[in-house]
C-alpha cells in the first residue's frame, strides 16, 4: 500500500496556503489592535475573541493545507471530516472571533447591511445552506465540481459564506442583528440538524458507490489535480484510491456519512448546551451574560 509521501512536501503541506493564513492572522491583529483607533466606538480585543479567531485559522489550515486535504481526494471519510469542520466548526469561531465594532463597520455599509439582514433571516439561512449542502452531495453535482478548480473553489467558497449566514442567528455578536433569542435558538438548531440529515442518509444507506471521482480511475485522477500537479500525477501511474486504503469504496462511503453525522451531532450538542445555559442564566438574572474582561493591548 502506498503512502502520501510520494506526492511531495508541497502537495502535503501547502506552504503558500500556510503563508496566506499567516498573513491573514497578522492583518487581523493589526486591524483589531494597532489600527482599531481609526474606527469609531472600537474596543480593545479580548483574549476570547483572539483565541476564537486563531483557532479558526489553525483549523482552516489543518483542513485545507495539511495532508488531510490530500486524503480528502482519496477517501470520502476524510473529505467528510473536512466538510464538517469547515462548515460546522470554523464559521461560528470566526463570527465570535471578530469584534462587534468590526462587524458594525462592515454591516454599516447600506448594501451589505440589506443583503446580510435578508440572508440571515432564520428560515432563509437554513434553507440556503442546507439546500446547497445537499445539492453538493448529489453524485452528478459532486463529480462535476470535483473535476474543476474554478467550480470547486466557487462552490465550496459559496458554501462557506452560507455556513456563516446559517450560524449567524445562533452566535450573532450584535444585539441589533439577533433575529432569535432564548429557546427559539434551540428550535433553530434542531431544525438545522434535521435538514442536514438527508445528505448523510444518502451516503450512509446507499448500496453502491455513489461518486465516480472515487470509483473511476480517470475521473479520480482528474479530481486529484485540485491538489497535486498533473505532471507529478502522470509520472506516478496511479490506478485509484484503493492504492492508499484497505477499505472498499462502499465501506469508505458509509464511514464518511457516519463521520459527518457524528461531528454534526457533537457540534450541535455543544451549542445547544451553550444556548440553553445562556437562556437559563438570562431568565434567572434578567440580563444577558456579560463578555469576559477586556485584555490590554
Folded structure, characterized:
It is built from 15 helices and no strands. The protein has one domain (9-285). Residues 289-297 have low confidence and may be disordered. The radius of gyration is 21 Å and the shape is globular. By secondary structure, the protein is an all-alpha fold.
Categorize the overall geometry.
globular
Distance between the termini: 52 Å
Q: Nearest-angstrom radius of gyration? A: 21 Å
Q: State the helix count.
A: 15
Count the beta strands: 0
User: On the 0-100 scale, what is the average pLDDT?
Assistant: 90
Unreliable sequence segments: 289-297
Question: By helix and strand content, what is the structural category?
Answer: mainly alpha
Q: Total domains, how many?
A: 1
What percentage of the residues does DSSP assign to strands (E)? Answer: under 5%
Q: Largest beta sheet, briefly?
A: none
TL;DR of this structure?
This protein is an all-alpha fold and 297 residues long. The protein is built from 15 helices and no strands.
Secondary structure elements and pairings:
Elements: H1 9-13, H2 15-34, H3 47-64, H4 67-71, H5 76-97, H6 100-107, H7 110-119, H8 122-136, H9 139-146, H10 149-171, H11 183-205, H12 212-215, H13 217-224, H14 230-236, H15 249-285
Helix pairs in contact: 2-3, 3-5, 5-10, 5-15, 8-10, 8-11, 11-15
Amino acid at each position: 500500500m502506498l503512502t502520501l509521501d510520494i506526492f511531495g512536501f508541497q502537495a502535503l503541506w501547502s506552504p503558500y496556503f500556510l503563508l496566506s493564513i499567516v498573513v491573514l492572522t497578522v492583518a487581523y491583529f493589526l486591524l483589531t489592535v494597532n489600527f482599531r483607533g481609526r474606527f469609531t466606538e472600537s474596543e480593545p480585543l479580548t483574549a476570547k475573541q483572539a483565541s476564537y479567531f486563531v483557532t479558526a485559522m489553525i483549523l482552516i489550515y489543518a483542513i485545507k493545507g495539511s495532508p488531510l486535504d490530500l486524503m480528502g481526494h482519496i477517501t470520502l471519510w476524510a473529505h467528510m471530516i473536512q466538510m464538517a469542520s469547515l462548515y460546522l466548526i470554523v464559521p461560528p469561531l470566526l463570527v465570535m472571533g471578530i469584534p462587534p465594532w468590526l462587524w458594525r463597520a462592515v454591516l454599516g455599509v447600506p448594501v451589505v447591511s440589506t443583503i446580510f439582514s435578508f440572508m440571515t433571516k432564520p428560515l432563509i439561512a437554513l434553507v440556503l445552506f442546507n439546500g446547497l449542502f445537499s445539492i453538493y452531495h448529489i453524485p452528478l453535482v459532486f463529480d462535476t465540481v470535483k473535476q474543476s478548480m474554478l467550480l470547486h473553489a466557487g462552490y465550496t467558497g459559496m458554501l462557506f459564506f452560507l455556513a456563516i449566514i446559517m450560524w449567524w442567528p445562533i452566535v450573532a455578536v450584535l444585539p441589533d442583528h439577533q433575529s432569535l433569542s432564548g429557546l427559539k435558538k434551540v428550535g433553530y438548531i434542531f431544525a438545522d440538524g434535521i435538514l442536514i440529515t438527508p445528505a448523510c442518509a444518502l451516503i450512509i444507506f446507499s448500496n453502491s458507490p455513489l461518486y465516480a471521482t472515487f470509483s473511476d480511475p480517470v475521473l479520480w485522477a482528474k479530481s486529484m489535480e485540485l491538489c497535486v500537479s498533473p505532471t507529478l500525477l502522470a509520472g506516478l501511474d496511479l490506478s485509484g484510491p484503493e492504492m492508499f486504503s484497505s477499505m472498499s469504496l462502499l465501506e469508505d462511503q458509509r464511514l464518511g456519512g457516519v463521520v459527518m453525522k457524528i461531528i454534526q451531532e457533537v457540534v450541535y450538542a455543544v451549542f445547544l448546551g451553550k444556548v440553553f445555559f445562556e437562556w437559563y442564566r438570562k431568565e434567572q438574572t434578567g440580563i444577558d451574560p456579560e463578555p469576559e474582561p477586556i485584555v490590554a493591548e
